[in-house]
Amino acid sequence: MLGFTKGLKYTLKQLTKEKVTYNYPDEPLPLPDRFRGIQKFYPEKCIVCNQCMNICPTECINLTGKKHPDPTKKGKIIDTYDINFEICILCDLCTEVCPTEAIVMTNNFELASYSRDMLFKNLEWLDENDENVRQVNKP
Amino acid sequence: MIRTEEMLLNVGPQHPSTHGVFRLVVKIDGEIITEATPVIGYLHRGTEKLAENLQYTQIIPYTDRMDYLSAMTNNYVICHAVETMMGIQVPERADFLRVMAMELGRIASHLVAWGTYILDLGATSPFIYAFRDREMIINMLNELSGARLTFNYMRVGGVKWDAPEGWVDGVREFVPYLREQLKGYHNLVSGNEIFLDRVKGVGVYSKEDAINYSLSGPNLRSTGVKWDLRKDEPYSIYDRFDFNIVTRDEGDCLARYHVRLEEIEESLKILEQACEQFPAEGEIMAKVPKIIKAPKGEAFVRIESPRGEIGCYISSDGKKEPYRLKFRRPSFYNLQILPKLLVGENIANLIAILGAVDIVLGEVDG
């Protein structure tokens, strides 16, 4: 019987301990700055180098560029930029290779939706996703 | 005389005590198991085949998803294999960060093993206590890597992030806290009479069986074989730390339970020493080419994961993708002894034996 009593004593002791649960979703979860949530995209910073598309292990990024509208300027600007969150694993490799930090992670992680199509996010959606953006992107 | 008929019973694939999608077809005569056939592959994602079309850096997130309870060791094994092939010397600070991350992962993994094992046997509250303490580790690793389970933290030649400010102090404070909690765990469960009745002398196998079945990790050490790659074939900077290999001689479920709990204590010792010796500054990445190409040839490395020996074999033809990649996944090998253990056992002991093997289905199926 000694084993039982010891265990019961431990359990009773826990009653006075502080609560460890979070009041989610009423209160947002405290997350570190490095947290890898849904990406924020800055179209004006993108130089269409295609590195994010090439490094993506699940091939969930699709992008196209177009000529710069100002004929005096060289290079391309971004035309379309889509991430398929059905297969994106939020591995952070796209933000790691981006030379201009045009794509960065945020602390937002709630992606649940009623249809699969809604997980297909385009340039405008990713541009508007501008809350809780990661502050320090490169180590 | 009562005549009984043999019956086929399907356990799983959706069954909470199989810890994933694992199916076990058992033939029972009354309450006694006469034959058990594990059916695996429900979580097979073809990691090894996928890796043949991926660059080495791209493979690292896939390894997170094999043994998802200790993803850091999986990260390490692939990086270690590529580093061995390329002859890269990892900076000291990166090595310390890797070891600390791996040991935290080991503790978190053993806490899940402990909590879920007791849950399988019918006690709910220890599981909650285990997860409470594991949550602290997960938060620490989240601060370090930016994810709670699928860390993708290590890179060929080092680690992605340096430790954030105050992180090492956080680990240092965590060590005495968990030591105190471990005493509570023993008070709560280790002496409990019902628990002892359920696990003592159940699922026994001998030293010879364990070696013949290629078991590793706590499953091997519970039979008295003193074999731990951190000591016997030191990799990274494990030779700098003073810790013991935990063994038990009984070879039953209770021995495996005690080996795991004591391994947590040994990991805490390593963490304590790592915090003391942590270099004040230094690089976290070695100089590696931007596109990693392993030289032509092959390499096999093995390290000690919480579940046993995890190995990584790379055959390269000098391109940026491996020609062939193979993981020796300890859960898969540890599972092979299960049909032998189950024959002749009571059906009620099935879950107790399966839980003590501590498999992760992501790793079994690859």
TrEMBL record, chain A:
Cofactor: [4Fe-4S] cluster
Keywords: 4Fe-4S, Iron, Iron-sulfur, Metal-binding, Translocase
Family statement: Belongs to the complex I 23 kDa subunit family.
One Gene Ontology MF term: NADH dehydrogenase activity
Gene Ontology CC terms: membrane
All copies of domain 4Fe-4S ferredoxin-type, residue ranges: 37-66, 79-108
One Pfam family it belongs to: Fer4_7
Name the record gives this protein: NADH-quinone oxidoreductase subunit I
Cross-referenced InterPro entries: 4Fe4S_Fe-S-bd, 4Fe4S_Fe_S_CS, NADH_quinone_OxRdtase_chainI
Swiss-Prot/TrEMBL GO biological process terms: aerobic respiration
